[in-house]
Design a protein that fits this description.
The complex is a heterodimer of chains A (338) and B (600). Chain A has 338 residues and is mainly beta. Chain A has no helices and 30 strands. In chain A, 0% of the residues lie in helices and 47% in strands. Classes of the chains: A mainly beta (338), B mainly beta (600).
Chain lengths: 338, 600
């Protein structure tokens, strides 16, 4: 579970003439998939299509980190079910129209056609990058997976990767750009029902290096800022009438949930030296890096009593065994200081 | 983005006034609804009722003050036949002083302009386009002859297809640059905010662009940019291939009652703007041309958010975002932050600030950010001076219509209140007439614009009166026409019973049943109910005419029953307008409404 650093903040229209704006995540029956709701664009904000009940339903908005939503695009001739991302095409948005079975690449509010690109089924979300249209799958409790189509030839490359041990929620996972990691295109795959967040290396076509984590449940829409390293998520507050969508901002840093008992390697011995280590993990066993751990020992001395965890969540220090007549052995305690 | 005003025309867009002052003939003022104000035929922009306001452009022309002019072309609504006109005004391009105006002389072509829009081509041509079932095309306006001339340029909508290969219908909005080989069109088959871009020579569809709302004009610049305006005051800037450069809202938007239009000043590189403004109380035009430079303007500054979880001793970067009203990021803007940390930051190209903070203690802290970004600068106070003298308002202070002014020959005072006049002497002419003749029976003068008084001596009859006023600068005004009833020869006796009746009689309802289409020859019976009469004999006169509104007595009668006063007379086969006038014993008078009767 990632760390919440801001929010929840009500999403409200910037224009006072627009009384309400709600985020669409559930297209009408028969529409395309259950995702395609939006994404984050650095320098602009969170793109989405407004829901029924909004002052301008079915139109395109941008929401900023303070929850201010700006209506930026008129409802197109084509019935747009959702927006997706094309980070490296000199474009901003992909939009899908189920009525015409076409994908559009758009630099809103300019519209141009990508396609048509036909897919065998209804992906949860797509990202157009590196001359591929990446699609996410996995409705009905099946495992989340990613497939791709060559762009612009529409050639299907089939399912590239299945995230083992996952069981997506009621809808297809969302997919959004995670940027380039060591030259590899990476994507985030989000099960919006459970909030599970999976990292995918689209270049190597394997699960990415980042650990599996979560944004928490109830997410209607999410995005990731490659530039800022922040996740944004939208949840609906149904306790209020009318309902209000709220923005949550998460740092790419899991919440620490456990710290392991410190261990000596090798076993402590009088006059000896051992490496004393402890590991900090999140609820999904994500390593927690950069956390300060304080060590205390019943005998002997420490090279450093407080050390920070590394990228794997390990905090390490060196223990020096007593050389006087102290009892054989030692007891160590590790404490997460903050 | 916002708009910073850089130009405000000195002169307003004037309505046409009566040439040479007010008419002296009663007949010219006969249909006074035509000359409610000195605006000739109550001229005002056609867009005040429907359609677009017009089009703006600049030209290289030598004026007494500069070398450029700003031009306005608009369809006008007038009450004179045929009810419309197309007018071009010219203003100095530096100061905005009014220079001249010209009207279309080709009335047949004027008719085709109504309901259309106008568009200006950067090369110097004005186009008119329409979308009704007849006029699907766009035609060039020949400014030298003020007429439409398809030989100079014509674009047939039937030559184009939508992005999906369908018929386009007609133009809802358009702009063309033949030198750049581009056509921008919102077709009737497009969505309201959808503009299609074509290569004009090959009729090839290139792209579609979308405004958030219905388009309200497409303005092309001389250097290859498109400003797309919509009804909610979004201003979207593209290049000629449809790539978006900027999108922002006009922060000065307001409700323009007659719509608005934009144009491009190619000399000073600014957006020209003309917004509809309600007429002044005296009917004068308040339209005035403005020009703006688009400037960056902040509308959103998000609170700082940490990129990592803040902890004691840990350096954490907070981020904040600066954007305009169109969500466009604003880069290069300095900001000062204070609180948990302090310093100066500058927004990057994405509009983001990065604020490093190293908390020194656990617990909450405040981080405040203040950006040095421009916001909307109010327009300089506009001296909306009193538009005095353009149109004087002359209002009768006496009650209008159905007023008994007693016996004929008496001195009857009238007072006219004048407003809008400049200080100085005023003159007033009062014109009474009964059967179409008339003239100036009174000429007076005064220096008090509040009240001008006149006295008349009129014989017993129903009179029509109107007054003209002129101030010291030669500006004119008109009163509304009023009806005045002058009673019989005997003096109007005072009411003896102390009741309040008698000043106005209220007479209702002609005709009796069956009189709608009486056969000829017929005995026409007028029957009415009178209220407010003094006790005694009532005198009834029925006037009938087929030339409105000069009524001639046709028969008369008397009675004492105010509930059933009737009189009979004959009418020839004709469509008649009939009015009844009643007098009571106190000499007071009333009048029915006028009804139409057809005698077969």
């Amino acid at each position: 579970m990632l760390s919440l650093v801001a929010g929840p903040t009500d999403i409200v229209p910037l224009d006072p003439l627009e009384a309400a704006v709600l985020v669409t995540t559930s297209p009408p029956p028969g529409a395309w998939g259950s995702g395609l709701s939006g994404f984050w664009e650095d320098g602009r904000g969170l793109w989405f299509v407004s829901d029924t009940g909004s002052t301008h339903a079915g139109e395109i908005y941008l929401v900023h980190l303070d929850g201010k939503a700006v209506r930026v695009g008129y409802r197109m001739t084509y019935s747009i079910r959702g927006l997706a991302q094309a980070p490296d095409e000199g474009l901003e948005v992909l939009a899908y129209d189920p009525g015409y079975d076409k994908w559009f690449k758009t630099h809103l509010p300019v519209m141009d056609e990508v396609g048509p690109i036909h897919t065998e089924g209804q992906p949860g979300d797509v990202v157009l990058a590196d001359r591929y249209l990446w699609c996410s799958w996995g409705p009905g409790g099946s495992s989340a997976s990613v497939s791709s189509y060559s762009y612009p030839t529409s050639h299907s490359n089939g399912v590239e990767h299945t995230f083992t041990g996952t069981a997506s929620g009621s809808g297809n996972p969302a997919l959004f750009d995670a940027g380039l990691v060591s030259g590899h295109r990476c994507l985030w795959c989000l099960d919006k029902g459970s909030g599970s967040l999976l990292h995918y290396d689209a270049t190597a076509r394997t699960e990415g290096p980042a650990a599996r984590t979560s944004l928490g449940s109830g997410v209607r829409l999410a995005g990731y800022s490659v530039k800022l390293g922040l996740f944004v998520a939208v949840r609906r507050d149904t306790t209020r009438t009318p309902n209000v969508d709220q923005l949550y901002v998460y740092a790419n840093e899991p919440v620490a949930a456990s710290i392991s008992a410190p261990s000596f390697s090798p076993a402590p011995a009088r006059g000896g030296s051992s490496l004393l280590s402890s590991r900090v993990l999140g609820t999904l066993a994500e390593p927690c890096a950069g956390r300060n751990v304080a060590f205390t020992v019943s005998s002997g001395s420490l090279e450093s009593s407080v050390t920070a965890t590394d990228s794997e969540g390990y905090a390490r220090t060196r223990w020096f065994g007593p050389t006087d007549g102290a009892p054989q052995g030692a007891t160590a305690t590790a404490t997460l200081t903050e | 983005m916002g708009l910073k005003r850089s130009f405000l025309a000195t002169s307003r867009v004037p309505y046409e006034r009566w040439p040479g002052g007010p008419p002296t003939s009663v007949w010219e003022a006969y249909n006074t609804y035509l000359i409610k104000t000195p605006r000739r035929y109550q001229e005002e922009p056609y867009s005040y009722s429907q359609g677009r306001l017009g089009v703006l452009w600049t030209r290289s022309e030598v004026t007494p003050w500069s070398t450029t002019t700003v031009n306005v072309l608009a369809a006008m609504n007038i009450v004179d036949w045929p009810g419309w006109a197309v007018t071009r005004w010219k203003f100095d391009g530096q100061l905005g002083r009014y220079l001249e105006r010209a009207n279309f002389s080709n009335m047949g072509n004027v008719a085709t302009a109504i309901g259309r829009g106008f568009s200006y081509e950067p090369s110097g041509w004005v186009w008119a386009f329409g979308s009704d079932y007849v006029l699907h095309d766009a035609v060039v306006l020949d400014e030298s002859t003020m007429s439409f001339d398809s030989s100079l340029g014509q674009i047939l909508s039937s030559d184009f297809l939508t992005r999906d290969g369908g018929a386009v219908g007609g133009f809802q909005d358009m702009a063309v640059d033949r030198a750049a080989d581009r056509l921008f069109a919102r077709w009737t088959m497009n969505n309201r905010g959808q503009v299609s871009i074509y290569r004009l020579s090959t009729k090839t569809w290139l792209a579609d662009i979308y405004a958030p709302n219905e388009t309200a004009g497409i303005v092309l610049t001389h250097d290859g940019f498109v400003y797309l305006l919509d009804v909610a005051d979004w201003i979207l800037c593209y290049d000629f291939d449809g790539s978006l450069y900027n999108a922002f809202k006009n922060p000065r938007r307001e409700n323009f009652p007659g719509g608005f239009c934009y144009g491009w000043d190619k000399f000073y590189k600014r957006l020209l703007f003309l917004g509809g403004v309600a007429n002044a109380t005296d009917g004068a035009s308040r339209l005035r041309i403005r020009a703006y430079y688009p400037v960056p303007e902040a509308a959103i500054l998000t609170p700082p958010i940490p990129r990592d979880v803040p902890r004691v001793g840990r350096s954490v970067v907070f981020v904040s975002h600066l954007a305009g009203e169109g969500a466009e990021p604003l880069g290069g803007r300095p900001a000062v932050y204070t609180g948990a940390a302090s310093g100066v930051a500058v927004s990057d190209s994405g509009g983001d600030y990065e604020l490093p903070v190293t908390p020194s203690a656990a617990g909450g802290a405040t981080l405040s950010l203040s950006s040095d970004a421009p916001v909307t600068v109010p327009d300089p106070a506009e001296a909306d001076e009193v538009i005095q003298g353009e149109t004087l308002i002359a209002d009768w202070i006496v009650p209008q219509n159905m007023q008994n002014f007693g016996p004929g020959g008496a001195v009857i005072p009238f007072t006219v209140r004048v407003s809008g006049a400049v200080a100085g002497a005023l003159t007033m002419n009062v014109y009474p007439f009964t059967t179409g003749g008339g003239g100036s029976d009174f000429t007076g003068s005064g220096s008090n614009p509040a009240d001008l008084e006149a006295t008349l001596s009129l014989i017993p009859a129903k009179w029509w009166l109107f007054a003209t006023v002129t101030d010291s600068l030669g500006h004119h005004g008109y009163s509304q026409r009023i009806a005045v009833y002058v009673g019989g020869a005997s003096p109007d006796p005072p009411d003896t019973d102390g009741s309040a009746h008698g000043d106005f009689l209220v007479a209702w309802a002609l005709p009796v049943p069956g009189a709608a289409e009486p056969a000829q020859p017929s005995t026409f019976i007028a029957q009415l109910t009178v209220t407010g009469a003094a006790p005694g004999v009532l005198q009834l006169t029925v006037n009938a005419t087929f030339v409105n509104p000069v009524l001639s007595p046709v028969f008369s009668g008397s009675g004492s029953d105010p509930q059933n006063l009737s009189v009979a007379g004959g009418l020839h086969p004709q469509s008649w307008l009939v009015t009844a006038i009643v007098h009571d014993a106190g000499g007071n008078m009333g009048q029915t409404n006028t009804i139409a009767i057809s005698v077969s």
